[in-house]
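Render Radical SAM protein in 3D.
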Amino acid sequence: MIDSHCHLEMFEEEISKVLKRAYDAEISTVITISSDAASIDEIIKITEQYPMVYATVGIHPHDAKELNSEVLKKLFELSRHPKVVGIGEIGLDYHYEHSPKEVQREAFALQLKLARDIGLPVVIHSREAFDDTIKILKEQNVHKGVMHCFSGNLSQAKKAIELGFFISISGVVTFKNAKTIKEVARFVPDEYLMIETDAPYLTPEPMRGKRNEPSFLIYTAKALADLRGVTIEDIDRITTVNVNRLFRIGDLPKGEIAYKIRDTLYLNVTNRCTNVCRFCVRFHTDYVKGHNLRLEKEPSAEDLIQTIGDPKNYKEIVFCGYGEPFLRLDLIKEVAKWIKEQGGRVRVNTNGQGNLIHRRKILPELAGLIDSISISLNAHDSETYNKICNPVKPNAFEAVIEFIKDAKKYVPFVQITVVNLKEVDIKKCEEIANSLGVKFKVRHLDEVG
């Protein structure tokens, strides 16, 4: 797990002990953030002493009045240091106004220009100044960074994400009355989520009253996992990948053929599909819950079986991934048969075009091999389906309806799903499900896994 934002220089002689506790708590990397001119040299020394520590350099809005040509030159020079991964924390703080607002705005713009020119991401501090923060970011054409210790509302989070910024959640999410940030923490798409301590500040529950430190990151991770209905392991993987993507530290995972989310194992058998759904997550990211699903090559049955191990270790094993599984029908039959023989449960997530693909009814061939099937209906009529799913084959919507009818005969549990797009009549979709006698589920846009 990575603590994406703390202030190690504030721990003085305790740094080695703090980092030892972080390491023991399975924190692999810590990014220490400068704030004023005096702290910059200190954090560089820390990064040089401890391999697990990286840094960002910048002048906090509280100290914006310190920024001059000499300091700006120093930031530029240090930005070339191998352990410096960003410019920050910079931004605006209208709550305390330790530096005049106009001075803050000027310092913010100058440091954004520096970051843009040298190609480093920015770490943004914004308190009671969101509109001006976004305005200046747009003016400076900066779209690569993180909103540190995000304290805004859901609407503001969406605007920041639209601009390309990650949202970092601090220990505030553990506080009982932090309703707004809990709402934001539930909403943030996986590919924009980070976590931090902001140590020594903002100590999370149940450690309130103590000085915060990176080892306490686990409490924020647990709160996030509970809010988002995933495991701490999932939060660790998601946020670690995101920090590595933004700051370019560590290795990013290669395409995976089997990936675990919560207590379920998903099989990524192909990236090919017979639909080009405009809402599909695969068109804007390679990642689902921190797993890279962009395949270098399609796996064989032997590859999958070897990767799965003992199927009983999972609640179920799902043929899913970044494409339409039934494009590889023979592989599904072989691997599903093996899973069932080993005592596992099998589900298939499909667009329901299996019969169209193979020009025959395929479900009789899968009788006894599949315990459940989830079919993406995604629309209430053919016209809407064609508009949002862009099927390669004609009469796809009608084929999906027939596939659902067949599924009831051969699969014990059948569910159809739709994405809550504005063009889709959810009520009519539910009526279709009821008329066909199958379960119904609404999936939220950009919520995958």
